[in-house]
């Protein structure tokens, strides 16, 4: 398909998308003008974007509409691939093959499509443009295993033995919630293989920066000790590699051996989200063999999960080995850390776009930091939305009220995200008939302590705030808040009346 025809097809797709309900044509004009068609064949379209921001925004918000438009126009399902082309808009040499980058974060320029022959889709397709798999078959055990959740959080394109350049220690925002995990990651990167930190196990909720730290270790070792082999892999990909090797075992005797050898020859092996391996006995066994061989030879293993090793549903021997080095958690970020992440993200945008005068007002930055959940992806998505409202839609003087309206339905948790600690305190005070001065004061009457612990517990559960932030509003320190939450959780296990009481309070608070 020649370039002129390709451009016409793209214009038809744009027009089709604009015809759909709930689509703003002005937004399509603004964003789609930064996309350029590069290759097309039956069921496949490759586009390039000017930069990572455009690529990410389109993938999150519009790629489903593009696929729908293509199917409406051509009556077959389409796969859509978007890559970054820093030379977009300039004349590029003609090539007969599209080049897919090895990593979504280190993309190389993609040449224009050839006019001589149809372009076939690449052999390896990004997971975020494929329909979700209903399940994964463990080739040895024969049992069906559910596909790992949160597939969108897994890097769709990987470069297993090379760096992921945008995730480094330098652009990791440090706060009290992640300082220890950060320090241990740096120690491992500087001197991999030391026994007291081998393995290094980092855990915490999704979106708190675990993958960033693993990639930062990979980058640091790759840059400072290039002779060492570093491999980063998420558990879903590891499982897929194992399945392919096992399935091909009868046809190609070396396939299984090559699978093991690749990981066993790593000097630094980083495995992300190991909790997804629970229930997958055969895969765990092979991981355990690789793990033992590497650590026994003084080579570094780094693991991450969304929970502590003791809370992963795996055999006790795995828990013991996973926990045998250094185990550190990442807590939800405090307000100061979230504000630092907002500022860092704005700086990245300024650098990538060359817009050195661009700025988001301080009150808007603070609003985003205070309103977002602990998930850093949600935080960055909110910043991106504000950036494009200010730039693409020519609203450089965006006000706080306009941002509140823009992000009204953005933050997870719905109405609870508009709650404050003061709201919860007030409802608890009314419910238990205690004054605010007593609730946050030094009195230790039984009824006041009880109400105080309930209020602290509800703040933690409903607002997802760090212990330090909650403690400041109750004039308590981190350890007191943690004790209160744990104490209520323990009592709930045996006290049905308390569970009902808390549910009643929760409903009263949600009605505010």
UniProtKB/TrEMBL annotation:
The UniProt regions of compositional bias labelled Polar residues, in chain numbering, are 93-102
Superkingdom, taxonomy of origin: Bacteria
Question: Which residue stretches belong to region Domain IV, binds dsDNA?
Answer: 391-512
- Give UniProt keywords alphabetically: ATP-binding, Cytoplasm, DNA replication, DNA-binding, Lipid-binding, Nucleotide-binding
User: Which regions are flagged for Low complexity bias?
Assistant: 103-118
Task: Please report the stretch or stretches of sequence annotated as the Chromosomal replication initiator DnaA C-terminal domain.
Answer: 420-488
Which Pfam families does the record match to this protein? Bac_DnaA, Bac_DnaA_C, DnaA_N
Q: Where does this polypeptide localize?
A: Cytoplasm
Pro residues bias: where?
A: 119-134
State the GO CC annotations: cytoplasm; plasma membrane
**ATP-binding listed as a keyword:** yes
The UniProt annotation places ATP binding at: 207, 209-211
Location of region: Domain I, interacts with DnaA modulators: 1-113
Domain comment, in the record's words?
Domain I is involved in oligomerization and binding regulators, domain II is flexibile and of varying length in different bacteria, domain III forms the AAA+ region, while domain IV binds dsDNA.
Q: Which family does it belong to?
A: Belongs to the DnaA family.
State the NCBIfam families in the record: DnaA
Which purpose does this protein serve, as stated in its record?
Plays an essential role in the initiation and regulation of chromosomal replication. ATP-DnaA binds to the origin of replication (oriC) to initiate formation of the DNA replication initiation complex once per cell cycle. Binds the DnaA box (a 9 base pair repeat at the origin) and separates the double-stranded (ds)DNA. Forms a right-handed helical filament on oriC DNA; dsDNA binds to the exterior of the filament while single-stranded (ss)DNA is stabiized in the filament's interior.
Summary of subunit composition and partner proteins: Oligomerizes as a right-handed, spiral filament on DNA at oriC.
Q: What is this protein called?
A: Chromosomal replication initiator protein DnaA
Q: Which organism is it from?
A: Enteroscipio rubneri
- As recorded in Swiss-Prot or TrEMBL, the protein's gene is named dnaA
């Amino acid at each position: 398909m020649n370039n002129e025809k390709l451009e016409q097809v793209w214009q038809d797709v744009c027009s089709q998308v604009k015809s759909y309900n709930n689509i703003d044509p002005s937004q399509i004009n603004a964003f789609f003008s930064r996309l350029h068609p590069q290759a097309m064949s039956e069921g496949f379209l490759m586009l390039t974007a000017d930069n990572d921001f455009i690529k990410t925004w389109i993938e999150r918000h519009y790629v489903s509409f593009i696929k729908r438009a293509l199917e409406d126009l051509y009556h077959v399902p389409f796969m859509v691939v978007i890559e970054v082309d820093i030379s977009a808009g300039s004349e590029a040499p003609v090539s007969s093959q599209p080049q897919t980058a090895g990593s979504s974060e280190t993309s190389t320029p993609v040449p224009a499509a050839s006019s001589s022959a149809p372009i076939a889709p690449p052999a390896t397709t990004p997971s975020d443009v494929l329909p979700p798999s209903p399940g994964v078959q463990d080739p040895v055990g024969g049992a069906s295993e559910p596909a790992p959740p949160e597939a969108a959080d897994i890097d769709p394109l990987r470069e297993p033995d090379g760096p992921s350049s945008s995730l480094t220690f330098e652009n990791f925002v440090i706060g009290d919630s992640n300082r220890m995990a950060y320090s241990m990651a740096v120690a491992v990167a500087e001197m991999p293989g030391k026994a007291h930190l081998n393995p290094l196990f980092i855990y915490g909720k999704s979106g708190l920066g675990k993958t960033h730290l693993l990639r930062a270790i990979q980058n640091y070792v790759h840059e400072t000790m290039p002779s060492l082999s570093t491999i980063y892999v998420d558990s879903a990909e590891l499982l897929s590699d194992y399945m392919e090797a096992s399935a091909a075992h009868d046809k190609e005797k070396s396939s299984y051996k090559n699978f093991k050898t690749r990981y066993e020859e790593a000097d630094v092996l980083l495995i992300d989200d190991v909790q997804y391996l629970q229930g997958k006995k055969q895969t765990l066994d092979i991981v355990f063999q690789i793990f033992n061989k590497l650590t026994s030879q003084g080579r570094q293993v780094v693991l991450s999960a969304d929970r502590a090793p003791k809370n992963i549903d795996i055999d006790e021997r795995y828990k013991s080995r996973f926990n045998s080095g250094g185990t550190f958690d990442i807590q939800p970020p405090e307000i100061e850390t979230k504000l630092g992440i907002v500022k860092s993200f704005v700086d990245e945008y300024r650098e990538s776009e060359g817009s050195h005068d661009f700025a988001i007002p301080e009150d808007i930055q603070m609003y985003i930091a205070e309103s977002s959940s602990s998930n850093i992806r949600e935080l960055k998505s909110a910043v991106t939305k504000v950036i494009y409202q200010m730039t693409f839609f020519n609203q450089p003087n965006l006000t706080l009220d306009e941002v509140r309206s823009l992000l009204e339905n953005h933050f997870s948790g719905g109405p609870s995200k508009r709650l404050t600690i003061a709201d919860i305190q007030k409802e608890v005070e009314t419910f238990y008939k205690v004054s605010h001065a007593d609730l946050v004061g030094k009195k230790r009457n039984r009824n006041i302590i009880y109400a105080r612990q309930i209020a602290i517990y509800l703040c933690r559960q409903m607002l997802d705030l760090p212990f330090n932030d909650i403690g400041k509003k109750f004039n308590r320190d981190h350890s007191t808040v943690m004790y209160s939450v744990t104490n209520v959780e323990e009592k709930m296990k045996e006290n049905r009346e308390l569970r009902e009481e808390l549910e009643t309070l929760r409903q009263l608070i949600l009605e505010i």
